[in-house]
C-alpha cells in the first residue's frame, strides 16, 4: 500500500505540476508555435518571489492568497515582456526560428538573476498546506492539491478556448495564423495575451507548489524538460494529453525510484518519450492535421 | 640578405620571449595568481561558494603572512558550473589567458577526470576535491586533494558500523562518479567485515522527493543506512524522506552529510537525530573535553571575514580547503618555485612533518610519495552533526 500511495499521490501530484507546466507551454505554442524554454525559470522566479513575499508577510491566511494573485499577475507581466521581445523579430516573418535564441536567452538571464538574488541554495517556500500520514507514510497535501488544480486548469482553459471570443480567436491562430490575420484577428495582441496567460499559470504553480519542487537556479532546466516531456507525450498543443501525460510521467518517475533506482529516472522517462514518439509521433492525444501546400 | 637577417632576428626574439615567459612564470613582480575553478552555479553551487570563501580567506591569511614568494596572492575565479566541457574551457582560460600560478579546483571527481591532464601538462600545483583513488601521484603528480579519499571515508564509516555491531546496512549514494565510487568502496569494505548490504540506491542530485527511494531502503530491512552525499541540499532531502517514511534507523553519513545548515532547512531541526557522520579531526571534540582552540579561532575569524557566506557554509569543508591552500603556499615557498613537480616533491617530503606546528586545523596531514590526500583514514572521526559542543565543533560519537 505504501508503494501505491507514493505512486498515486506523490507521483501523480508532482506529475500534475508537470502537467500544469505543459499546459502553460501549450497556451503559448497554440498561439505562436513557440516553445518557451524560459518556462521552468519563470517557475523558479515565482517561487523566489513567493519566498520573499512570505518572509515579509505570512505563509497562511489572506496575505498568502493575496500573494498568489499578486505573484501570478507579476509573473504574467514578466512573461508578457518576454513575449513582446520574442515576437519582435517575428514581425517580418513567422517562419523564422529566432525564438529559439530569444527564449534560451531569457532562460539564461532569468537563471542569472535568480543566482544573483538567491545564490545557489534551493529556495525554501512556505505553505499553509501541511502533511498527512497514510499507511505509515507522511506526504504533503500539496500533491493531491496539484492534481485538483491541474484538472481545474484544464477545465478553465478548455472553457476559455471554447466559450470566449478571445479563446476562439486563439484557437483560430493555432489552426492558421495567416488566415486569422486576413480575417482581422489581432494576431500579435493575442500572442502577447497567450504569453501573459501562460505566465499567470506559471506564477501560480511556482507560488503554490514551490515547496515540493525544491526550486533553485539549476532546476529551471529540469522543470521545463519535464513540462516539455509531458506536453510531447500528451501531444503538443493538446491540453487533455498534457493533463494525463503529466501524472503518468510522475508515476513512472516515482516507480523508477522505488523499484529500479534514481539513477535511471531520466533515462526511463526519456525512453518512454522515445517509444511514444516512435509509435505515435503526434503524441498520445495529438491529431495529425493535413496542410494544403 | 637584410631580409634574411630580419627574419632570423624576429625568430630569435620570439624564441627569447617564449623562453623568458616560461622561465619567469610566477617570478615577475606582479601578484601571484591563484586560479579558483569551482561550480558557482548549477547543482553544486553551494559547494562552490564555500570553496570560494575558503580561497578568499586563505588568501588573506597568506598575504598577511607575507604572501607567496614575497608577493601578494590574488584570486582569479572561474565558474565550472559542474559541466565537464565548461570546466575544461574555464581551466584552459585560467592557464592560457590568466597565467595562473597555482589552482584550486575543480570540486568533484567528474570535473577532475575531465581536466587533470591539462593541469598536469601545465605543470602547476593544484588543490582539488576529487575523492577518487584512481588519480594516483603517478597519474596526477602535481595534484593534491583536500577531501578525504572515498575508500578512506568508506573505511571510517564501516569502522563505526562494526563498532556498533551492525550486521546489515543499506547504501544510499548520488549518481555521479563520486557516488558510484563511494558505493563500490563501501560494498568492498562492508563485505570485508562480513556486513551484508541489503540494497544500494542511487539518487539524482537535486531531486526534491526521495520518499520512494527511502521506502525501498526501509523495505530491505537493514540494521543501519549509509549515506554518501555531496552537499547539504541532497542530505536534507534524504533525511526528510527518511522521516516521511518513519525510518527510525541509525544513519551513518560521509563528510558531505555534515552540511548541517542547508540540510536542516529542508528536513527540520530533528533531521539529525539518528545521524552519525565521518569528518575531519579538527571539527570533532569528545563530550566534556575542551573544543580545539584553533578551530574556535578559525570559526570566529571566518565569521568576521564574511558572515553571510560563512553562515551558509560548512566549517569543516572551508577549514580543510584553507589548510590545503596554506600547505600549497608553503610548498611553493619551500621549493622556491612554482614548478608543480618541485612543489609536489617538497610537500611529499615535508607536509606531514611540518603540519602540526603551522596553524593548520586538521592534522595530522597524510601527504607522502604514496598519497596526495591531505587526510588519511586514521585521522577521520565519527561525529554527531546535529550536536555541537561549540559553534562549528561537533560532539564525537566515537569517544
How would you sum up this structure, described in words?
- The complex is a heterodimer of chains A (293) and B (399).
- In chain A, a hairpin with a 2-residue loop joins strand 1 and strand 2 (137-140).
- In chain A, strands 1-2 form a two-stranded antiparallel ribbon.
- The mean pLDDT of chain A is 86.
- Chain A is mostly helical.
- Chain A has helices at residues 2-32, 39-56, 61-87, 98-118, 142-163, 165-175, 177-182, 187-209, 219-234, 239-260, 265-279, and strands at 131-134, 137-140.
- With 399 residues, chain B is of the alpha/beta class.
- Helices cover 46% and strands 17% of the residues of chain B.
- An 8-stranded mixed beta sheet of chain B has the order 7-6-8-9-10-12-13-11, with helices on both faces.
- In chain B, helix 2 (45-64) links the parallel strand 1 and strand 2.
- The longest helix of chain B is centred in the N-terminal third of the chain and has 22 residues, at 2-23.
- The termini of chain B are far apart.
- At the A-B interface, helix 1, strand 2 and helix 10 of A face helix 2, strand 7, helix 7, helix 8 and helix 9 of B.
Proportion in β-strands of chain B: 15-25%
Strand content of chain A: under 5%
Global morphology of chain B: globular
- What composes the largest sheet of chain B? 8 strands, mixed
Radius of gyration of chain B: 22 Å
What is the count of DSSP helices of chain A, taking H or I runs of 4+ residues? 11
Name the shape of chain A in a single word: globular
Helix content of chain A: over 70%
Number of strands of chain A: 2
H/E element string of chain B? HEHEHEHEEHEHEHEHEHEEHHHHEE
Question: Layout of helices and strands, plus pairs?
Answer:
The complex is a heterodimer of chains A (293) and B (399).
Chain A lengths: L1 H31 L6 H18 L4 H27 L10 H21 L12 E4 L2 E4 L1 H22 L1 H11 L1 H6 L4 H23 L9 H16 L4 H22 L4 H15 L14
Helix pairs in contact in A: 1-5, 1-6, 1-8, 1-9, 1-10, 2-3, 2-4, 2-8, 2-9, 3-4, 3-8, 5-6, 5-10, 6-8, 9-10, 10-11
Chain B lengths: L1 H22 L8 E7 L6 H20 L8 E7 L4 H13 L5 E3 L4 H14 L3 E3 L14 E3 L4 H15 L3 E7 L2 H16 L3 E8 L7 H9 L4 E5 L3 H13 L6 E3 L6 H8 L7 E5 L4 E2 L7 H13 L1 H6 L2 H21 L4 H15 L26 E10 L2 E4 L3
Parallel strand pairs in B: 1-2, 1-3, 3-4, 4-5, 6-7, 6-8, 8-9, 9-10, 11-13
Antiparallel strand pairs in B: 10-12, 12-13
